[in-house]
Design brief:
Length: about 100
């Protein structure tokens, strides 16, 4: 969770940090949480984006970068898949201040 903003954070980095193998971390994580590390990180990043949007609106590209996505289109697709609405619709539903930024 501490590394969610780093778009380059990977299982290999996590394995190096914890001094255990990639496959062992995956196995333990799935046993403990019921989801894969990749799924957990994706959901965590999307939840952080939703938290930000509940306070303020920011351009999608900037929001995607803020929560660790390299690709804003992938971010938008995953956000809509998780929440059932676009980023803008979500922000509007939470009464976030939407500023038009050119």
């Amino acid at each position: 969770e501490m590394n969610y903003q780093n778009p380059y954070f990977s299982m290999d980095i996590l394995a190096d940090m914890t001094f255990v193998s990639h496959s062992y971390i995956c196995k333990l994580f799935k046993e403990q949480t019921g989801v894969s590390v990749k799924r957990y990180m994706l959901d965590f990043r999307l939840e952080k984006a939703a938290e930000i949007l509940e306070k303020k609106y920011m351009p999608i590209r900037k929001l995607a970068e803020e929560v660790g996505f390299n690709d804003q289109f992938h971010f938008m697709k995953e956000f809509k898949k998780k929440y059932g609405v676009t980023v803008k619709e979500y922000a509007e539903s939470k009464n976030a201040v939407i500023e038009k930024i050119e």
